Amino acid sequence: MLDSIIFSVNAVFPLVIMMILGFCLKQRKTGLFKNPKEFFSEIDKFVFHVALPTYIFSELYGAEVGDIFNINLVIYCMSGLLLAFFILILTAPVFIKKRASRGAFIQGVCRPNFALLGVPLAGNLFGDSGLKTAALILPFALPLFNALAVIILAVNSDDNHNSKKRETVRRIILGIVKNPLIIALFLAVPFMLLKISFPFAIQKSIGYVAGTAAPLALISLGAGVEFEVLKGKIKLSLVASLLKTAVCPAVFVVPAVLLGFRDAALVVIFVLFAAPTAVGSYIMAKNMRSDYELAGQIVAVTTIICPFTVFAGSLILKSLELI
């Protein structure tokens, strides 16, 4: 039991420490940055457009496809995401009458921060194999996350101007196609299949840039936590957050275990459903006339709760020798 606790602490708390560091650095009292919000906004851009794509590319281009690609895992993960989405479409109208809040609620439960937090967490839980397996799920998961978000927010928007809705949907779909992470994944595929390698100097440079992705993403994620947003709709955001970080992992990990998923594959399923809500859900909710205040609260609360639920989940899985 002690070994399992140590394992879970070592897997989860380095990420928590980086997030706490980001939260502390953002405080104006430190005097480190003239405008902390703008500074971390620029960090977000660097991580999203440069560091994270390089990180994903570096993890995949030299990998053996047969060792990390699992079609059953892809089918299970995508089916699980769709199932969660449709269950909430049927049940959310029963207890959430306001359409805009309903859309933000469903998106908050169904859209994990898999790229920024899920992939590094999979690496911490199951080493290089976990990281590469998580990275290979991304080209399937990212478009699905975004497509589901677009659908649910468009259907449950307070905006009655259809032309404006269509323009927003078109812009978001274009954003999916131009997503740097998806581009990086597809660029890595020919290198992976043809076993193309880079000269040492280029490999080292790619490694340097890739190495900045996880720490900067986690620091920036911590800096994005704002306790001021936790007002007015805390009960609804707390329900969504518990569904996202506790109920969904339990609902989808148990059948995965019964179906025989183990080790890296089970880790990826766990972090996919246990990761906090994506930060981008707040921006998308605001652009599509949804309840962006609720969306922001769900992001904040899931980010705060996630370390505790992930610690508990990883401890259980490790104790049962499933990972």
Please give the radius of gyration in angstroms.
19 Å
Major beta sheet, specifics? none
**Poorly predicted sequence stretches spanning 5 or more consecutive residues:** none
Shape: globular
State the oligomer: single chain
Beta percentage is: under 5%
SSE string? HHHHHHHHHHHHHH
Mean pLDDT: 82
Derived structural class: mainly alpha
Q: What is the tally of beta strands?
A: 0
Q: What's the N-to-C terminus distance?
A: 14 Å
- Fraction in helix: over 70%
Provide a count of the helices. 14
What does this 3D model show about the protein?
- With 323 residues, this protein is mostly helical.
- It contains 14 helices and no strands.
- The protein has helices at 2-26, 36-60, 65-68, 71-95, 99-110, 114-155, 162-177, 180-194, 200-211, 213-223, 234-258, 263-274, 280-287, 292-319.
- The longest helix is centred in the middle third of the chain and has 42 residues, at 114-155.
- It is globular.
- The model has no long low-confidence stretch (mean pLDDT 82).
Topology readout:
Elements (H helix, E strand, L loop, with lengths): L1 H25 L9 H25 L4 H4 L2 H25 L3 H12 L3 H42 L6 H16 L2 H15 L5 H12 L1 H11 L10 H25 L4 H12 L5 H8 L4 H28 L4
Please tag this protein with its features.
mainly alpha, single chain, 0% strand, globular, 80% helix, 323 residues
